Amino acid sequence: MIRIAYVDTSAFVKRFVQESRSDEMDAFAAEGSHRLAVSSLTVTEFRSVMKRRLRMHTVTREFLNTAVQQFLHEIAADALRFHAIEAATFNLAAELIDSLASPLATLDALHLASAKACGATLMVSADKQLIKASRESGLKVLDLAQA
Protein backbone atom coordinates (compact mmCIF):
# COMPACT_ATOMS: atom_id res chain seq x y z
CA MET A 1 0.00 0.00 0.00
CA ILE A 2 1.37 3.38 -1.01
CA ARG A 3 1.32 5.96 1.75
CA ILE A 4 0.56 9.50 0.64
CA ALA A 5 1.94 12.66 2.20
CA TYR A 6 0.26 15.89 1.17
CA VAL A 7 2.81 18.71 1.06
CA ASP A 8 1.42 22.20 1.45
CA THR A 9 3.15 25.16 -0.16
CA SER A 10 4.95 26.30 2.99
CA ALA A 11 6.78 22.97 3.07
CA PHE A 12 7.06 22.42 -0.68
CA VAL A 13 8.98 25.67 -1.20
CA LYS A 14 11.67 24.28 1.10
CA ARG A 15 12.60 21.80 -1.66
CA PHE A 16 13.67 24.70 -3.89
CA VAL A 17 14.72 27.53 -1.57
CA GLN A 18 17.16 27.02 1.27
CA GLU A 19 15.46 28.15 4.46
CA SER A 20 14.88 26.89 7.97
CA ARG A 21 14.17 23.12 7.95
CA SER A 22 14.77 22.71 4.20
CA ASP A 23 17.16 19.87 4.98
CA GLU A 24 14.37 17.99 6.78
CA MET A 25 12.04 18.41 3.80
CA ASP A 26 14.76 17.19 1.43
CA ALA A 27 15.50 14.18 3.64
CA PHE A 28 11.82 13.26 3.87
CA ALA A 29 11.35 13.52 0.11
CA ALA A 30 14.48 11.44 -0.51
CA GLU A 31 13.60 8.63 1.89
CA GLY A 32 10.67 7.60 -0.29
CA SER A 33 8.44 6.32 2.50
CA HIS A 34 5.50 8.30 1.12
CA ARG A 35 4.35 9.45 -2.29
CA LEU A 36 4.31 13.25 -2.21
CA ALA A 37 1.04 14.89 -3.20
CA VAL A 38 0.25 18.48 -4.09
CA SER A 39 -2.83 20.26 -5.41
CA SER A 40 -3.65 22.88 -7.98
CA LEU A 41 -3.59 25.36 -5.09
CA THR A 42 0.04 24.44 -4.42
CA VAL A 43 0.95 25.24 -8.02
CA THR A 44 -0.61 28.71 -7.79
CA GLU A 45 0.79 29.48 -4.35
CA PHE A 46 4.25 28.24 -5.34
CA ARG A 47 4.33 30.71 -8.23
CA SER A 48 3.18 33.49 -5.91
CA VAL A 49 5.85 32.70 -3.31
CA MET A 50 8.59 32.52 -5.92
CA LYS A 51 7.46 35.78 -7.53
CA ARG A 52 7.47 37.49 -4.11
CA ARG A 53 11.02 36.24 -3.55
CA LEU A 54 11.98 37.66 -6.94
CA ARG A 55 10.59 41.06 -5.92
CA MET A 56 12.54 40.79 -2.66
CA HIS A 57 15.70 39.96 -4.66
CA THR A 58 16.24 36.66 -2.84
CA VAL A 59 15.99 34.66 -6.08
CA THR A 60 16.77 35.50 -9.69
CA ARG A 61 14.31 35.34 -12.57
CA GLU A 62 16.31 32.41 -13.97
CA PHE A 63 16.02 30.56 -10.65
CA LEU A 64 12.27 31.27 -10.49
CA ASN A 65 11.72 29.99 -14.04
CA THR A 66 13.81 26.87 -13.42
CA ALA A 67 12.01 26.09 -10.15
CA VAL A 68 8.54 26.51 -11.67
CA GLN A 69 9.48 24.39 -14.70
CA GLN A 70 10.93 21.65 -12.48
CA PHE A 71 7.79 21.64 -10.34
CA LEU A 72 5.53 21.40 -13.40
CA HIS A 73 7.74 18.68 -14.86
CA GLU A 74 7.43 16.61 -11.66
CA ILE A 75 3.64 16.84 -11.94
CA ALA A 76 3.62 16.00 -15.65
CA ALA A 77 5.99 13.06 -15.11
CA ASP A 78 3.73 11.78 -12.29
CA ALA A 79 6.60 12.11 -9.81
CA LEU A 80 4.12 13.95 -7.60
CA ARG A 81 0.54 12.90 -7.03
CA PHE A 82 -1.60 15.80 -8.23
CA HIS A 83 -5.02 16.68 -6.84
CA ALA A 84 -7.06 19.04 -9.01
CA ILE A 85 -9.33 21.04 -6.76
CA GLU A 86 -12.95 20.64 -7.82
CA ALA A 87 -16.31 21.47 -6.26
CA ALA A 88 -16.20 18.48 -3.91
CA THR A 89 -12.91 19.72 -2.43
CA PHE A 90 -14.44 23.16 -1.80
CA ASN A 91 -17.40 21.47 -0.10
CA LEU A 92 -15.06 19.41 2.07
CA ALA A 93 -13.07 22.54 2.95
CA ALA A 94 -16.27 24.23 4.10
CA GLU A 95 -17.17 21.18 6.18
CA LEU A 96 -13.74 21.23 7.81
CA ILE A 97 -14.07 24.94 8.61
CA ASP A 98 -17.44 24.23 10.25
CA SER A 99 -16.48 21.06 12.12
CA LEU A 100 -12.97 21.68 13.46
CA ALA A 101 -12.31 23.65 16.63
CA SER A 102 -9.03 24.87 15.14
CA PRO A 103 -9.52 28.03 13.08
CA LEU A 104 -8.82 27.46 9.40
CA ALA A 105 -8.09 30.17 6.85
CA THR A 106 -9.63 29.56 3.44
CA LEU A 107 -6.48 28.38 1.69
CA ASP A 108 -5.44 26.20 4.63
CA ALA A 109 -8.89 24.60 4.54
CA LEU A 110 -8.41 23.89 0.83
CA HIS A 111 -4.99 22.32 1.50
CA LEU A 112 -6.45 20.15 4.26
CA ALA A 113 -9.44 19.17 2.12
CA SER A 114 -7.09 18.32 -0.76
CA ALA A 115 -5.04 16.12 1.56
CA LYS A 116 -8.15 14.29 2.66
CA ALA A 117 -9.50 14.01 -0.89
CA CYS A 118 -6.32 12.45 -2.27
CA GLY A 119 -6.11 9.89 0.54
CA ALA A 120 -3.14 11.36 2.39
CA THR A 121 -2.37 10.04 5.85
CA LEU A 122 0.34 12.62 6.51
CA MET A 123 0.36 16.41 6.19
CA VAL A 124 3.75 18.04 5.61
CA SER A 125 3.60 21.71 6.51
CA ALA A 126 5.40 24.65 8.03
CA ASP A 127 2.12 26.45 8.77
CA LYS A 128 1.28 26.23 12.49
CA GLN A 129 -2.49 26.65 12.07
CA LEU A 130 -2.67 24.08 9.29
CA ILE A 131 -0.57 21.69 11.39
CA LYS A 132 -2.95 22.06 14.33
CA ALA A 133 -6.05 21.56 12.16
CA SER A 134 -4.47 18.60 10.37
CA ARG A 135 -3.81 16.85 13.67
CA GLU A 136 -7.34 17.59 14.83
CA SER A 137 -8.73 16.11 11.61
CA GLY A 138 -6.84 12.85 12.21
CA LEU A 139 -3.83 13.25 9.93
CA LYS A 140 -0.31 12.58 11.09
CA VAL A 141 1.95 15.60 10.64
CA LEU A 142 5.52 16.29 9.64
CA ASP A 143 5.91 19.67 11.35
CA LEU A 144 8.42 21.87 9.53
CA ALA A 145 7.43 25.09 11.28
CA GLN A 146 10.22 27.06 12.86
CA ALA A 147 10.75 26.07 16.46
Q: Given the structure, what is the number of helices?
A: 7
Rg value: 15 Å
Strand order of the largest sheet: 3-2-1-4-5
Order of helices and strands: EHHEHHEHHEHE
Unreliable runs: none
* CATH top level assignment: Alpha Beta
Can you tell me the CATH superfamily?
5'-nuclease
Give the count of structural domains. Answer: 1
Query: How far apart are the termini?
Result: 33 Å
Strand content: 5-15%
The residue-averaged pLDDT reads 95
Q: CATH topology, what is it called?
A: Rossmann fold
From the coordinates shown, what is the CATH architecture? Answer: 3-Layer(aba) Sandwich
Shape: globular
Description:
By secondary structure, this protein is of the alpha/beta class. The protein has one domain (4-143): Rossmann fold (3-Layer(aba) Sandwich). Helix content is 54%, strand content 14%. The protein is built from 7 helices and 5 strands. The protein has helices spanning 9-12, 22-31, 40-55, 61-76, 87-99, 106-117, 128-136; strands at residues 4-7, 35-39, 81-83, 122-125, 140-143. The chain has a 5-stranded parallel β-sheet with strand order 3-2-1-4-5. Helix 7 (128-136) links the parallel strand 4 (122-125) and strand 5 (140-143). Helix 5 (87-99) crosses helix 6 (106-117) and helix 6 (106-117) crosses helix 7. The chain is globular. It starts with a strand and ends with a strand. The mean pLDDT is 95.
Give a brief outline of the structure.
Helices cover 54% and strands 14% of the residues. It is an alpha/beta fold. The protein has a single domain, classed as 5'-nuclease (Rossmann fold), CATH 3.40.50.1010.
